[in-house]
Amino acid sequence: MRFHILTVLLLSFNIIAAQDNYPQDAFQSPLEIPLILAGTFGELRSDHFHSGIDIKTQQREGLPVLAVADGTVVRIQVSHWGYGKVIYVAHPNGYTSVYGHLKKFGPELEEYVKKVQYSKQSYEVEMFPDYGELKVTKGSVIAYSGNTGGSAGPHLHFEIRSSVTERPTNPLLYGYEVRDATNPTVLGLFGYPLSEGALINQSAKTVQINFTKQPDGSLLADKVSALGTIGFGINSFDRQDLAANQNGVYSVKQTVNGRVYSEFDFETFSFAETRYINTLIDYPYFYKNRQRIQKCFKEPYNHLDIYKSLYNNGKIDVEEGMSYQVELLISDIEGNLTKLVIPVEGKQEMEKVAKEDDRTEDFILADKPNNFDLGAAKVYFPANTFYEDFYIDLKKGNDTITIHDNSVSAHRNFTISFDPSKYPLEDRKQLFIARLDDKNRPSYSKTYKRDGSFTTRTRSLGTYTLVKDSVAPTIRPKNFKEKQWLSNYSYLSLIINDDLSGVDTYSATLNGEWILMEYEPKTNTITYNFDDKILNTNECELKVTVTDNVGNSTTFTSTFFRK
Ligand SMILES: [Zn+2]
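That is the input. Now the predicted structure with zinc ion docked in place:
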């Protein structure tokens, strides 16, 4: 018990020490409501760590978003995906605050952005205003919260980065108050036999290890017998006080007989390395179960710099006749700590579960380029596409090829080239490279057509084929009808769709003049705001053109009246 309290104190001390490096009173809250989080910094996401906090906005859009300190807007972006509408504000203290998934900008910025959108005739834009051109003061409304871009529900994505290195830092290190008295939850514990011949509980394969909660709140694993080099991994989450969201934990520390073997935390990380998350998690397990196990040992091809401390890369060499007390200390940023104790006995035992035989005809040497001819297509993996050498499972075909499956993560793009020569020339225009999912549903993979070859660059393994899209997109009005009076309307919206290859471009004019359509791919909606332009006639002709990814195009026209 005394030891437990001491560890808590030491851990809290670590977090306080981290906070010492960051200004505590410089930044106010970006919202006028209490901070309740739907996501924490460093949380494990698809191919990346979450680079900010997701603040819940009461299931609503349109809450005022405030500048957290005096500063100047250095970047604004509007995109269909990613952060959607986003503002970057640089502050004199060397930090940049970032506000994402916005519904709308504040009046001054909105005017600035619209001007650029109309001059470029594009909804998607990116701007880098001159330093001092767009100044903001602490607490002023710079935008309204929304759900734009890759967002699954209304919230504000908020980041604090270093203005110099652009490294994101944990926003909760800057004195923000988020109520949290709940210890992290551990869902699963896993043991990994790592060296040749290593066994855990007589298994050469990854094993799940049971644990039970002790009266003092700590967790105790069933006794583990092992031999050789082994490692551990956990599946865990943290919950704050005022919401049920399962957020990421702040730090994981592993000790063996009192010595720190590994410790990592989410004080900061770099965008350049964020994809190495696929080396921190057990990727094949994630592919199968959609749950992320964080390994407490560091793989040789893991280039993350989130580690505060490492001994033997977190791997434990278990010798016969020796016993080891392994402790995992899982903490949130408030210092709430969950301790998981794993007793390990070094024992020579019979192997009951052997490693899977994953041998195939083709072996990938990760640090060399690899070429394969699969009949319908050729595949080229540049050097270091993959993290480690492995047997790749390739299936040749006249129409369809299969490149392993997504249980392996590619770090870089590789190239797939189809030969379209067996298709009639007039068909080739409507063909595209499609990735087929488990249910054989095609999705468009950006297809470059040249020199009689169709090429795509991707990081997704799996099944690919050529698919023909001969159906043009559909366009239908959402909130108005032909020949309707729309004097009281503040906006026009339409539903656009393309079944197979997907929407590539869209554009619209009113009486021949280009108008801004805001596209929301999540709802297939394009929207025009009447504030944008003063119409000088009562009769208006709207013309909307949508083109899909192989060039099929549809034009919709409608007349309406407005005073
Ligand atoms: Zn976010």
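The CA atoms of residues 376 and 399 lie 5 Å apart.
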